[in-house]
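Give me structure tokens for this 275-residue protein.
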Amino acid sequence: MLRLLNLELQKLLLNRTSKILIFVSFILPFFVILLSSLKINVFGFFTLELGELGVFNFPIIWHLTTFFAAQFKFFFAIVVVSMIGNEYSNKTLKQNLIDGLSKREFILSKFYTIVFFSMLSTILIGLISLCIGLYYSSYNEFNIILRETNFLVAYLVKLVGFFSLCLFFGMLVKRSAFALAFLFILYLVEWLVFWGAYEIFGNASDAFKIKNFMPLESMYKLIDQPFQRIAMTKFPDKAELSYDYTVHWYEIAIVLGWTAVFIFLSYRLLKKRDL
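Here you go.
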């Protein structure tokens, strides 16, 4: 595993564009810190400071930071599809296979790289969240601090699943720009599935249950938007604000299932393709 990971890291770090995109993808999560220190002047009457509103209290901070950090995943997605595009354009894929690397090892090297950078990103956002929480949170009990750290697990699974999807699209079309365009096409397809299910079942609730099994939607559902939850803490008497924001085991299982499918299909594409 380490040999394959080291081989892939050497390729990435020798590529100037990849190095810049990796750097940007790891720097952007630090904007969460800027968010915590943001002060909004409301028409000159008073200053609204997010850090003083309790939105960075434990345990809600794990939900908030992982949700925002996940929005920056597209930068490393470009790196993932570029890994494949560069292999074909630079003929390094064929050379690797000539040098003794099997097709299975080639796909595994990409997957190990995805897991490696996803874990680094998860550790980084975990440390950022912990530091912000310790500074702003009104609660410092150990059990409260660790409560809902399962959002970090969801964040890791979400990144690995999304990047595995990008890897599959990269293998499918061999071009970075087209691979990213396929993400938009898949997004449209999932909404078509939703409307088809709506026509069959006659209600949006059942249609969304079907859509929740689709790749992009299942990844999104791992970490639901936290804004409604924040509103719930400010207006606890408004029952209409309540919603299920919990990370469920079956949501993680769905994304892990899609991840396995994407890696397997990537391998099958490579195995059948004439290089």
